[in-house]
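Sample intake sheet
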Amino acid sequence: MDRPTIADLAKAAGVGTATVDRVLNGRANVRAETVRRVHEAAEKIGYHGANVIRHRMLADKAEFRLGLILQKPNHAFYQETQRIFEAQARACTLRRVQVTTKFMEDPSPEELARLLAAMKGRVDAVAATGIDHHAVTRVVQDLRSAGIPVYSLLSDFAQGVRESYFGTNNIRVGRIAGWFISRLARRPGKVGVFIGGPRFHGHELRETGFRSYFRDTAPQFQMLETQINLETRKLTYEATANLLSRHDDLIGLYCAGGGMEGAIQAVREMRKPGAFVLIVNELTPDSLAGLHDGTLSVVLATPVRQIAADLIVQMIETSEKGFAEVPGQRFFPALIWTPESEIMM
């Protein structure tokens, strides 16, 4: 495929080739909005001069250093989350945003606290995924005292100390999962739920919403005891296979955290497509394959791109205006994918 030309870029941006030439060569008399539009078009079509345009667009902007702490370095979802944050940082026109990403080698609170503490003096703000623990809260308070706001992502922690939570309303997500299982199941029966562990605040809220839905709206279904899977594929596979073997009347399962790959594998091996309702979180190559072959019924996904874009703006505003008087939270609607969805990855 031929490399995009200036004419292609001008068409994509809705301007003339002369305007594109002025943008590329840094000439005066080009409105900032026009430069931004040309840059966005260059990124979209893969124009080779996109970085040059960005550099000139942000030449007089101050640098903003963003620290990002994520779980599981080899997991597709967190790799994609890193890629999205870096892309949104490049697209930001308010500052020259630089992202420093660190992955947790293990999910312990001590590891998260260590990585947060290491960000002190190196970044202007931090966004992190992780578990809620007093050791984490102490470090978040220390960073706040040093003028560095911390934002919790996906699962909340350090409430009252972190600047804000950005993610889905996890109680609502759990209730949505319950609604789908009660509607898609061929008959009433037993229902199971997996969470990563008791200190994953987001998982606990999803479990709460999931159970409350069945208690309030679908009492004809029987909820089984919650399974702790430590977000691991192997443990989730073994536990799912055990549940399917012991309960012929198990009709649905919700994996409220990580480890969904194991649940998908076990259901694929032990149940016919469409005979069992399996719901997981986040769209990955594994969950996409599960949708395509009928193993999965629904994927409830986090709108990471919108979260990243809005969070970067919020971070910059906080650096300019100061901390909020009251720590807040920002909820984003979950994305719902089914086997009939048109999915681009």
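Comment: Residues 149 and 313 are 13 Å apart (CA to CA). The first strand starts at residue 63 and ends at 70.
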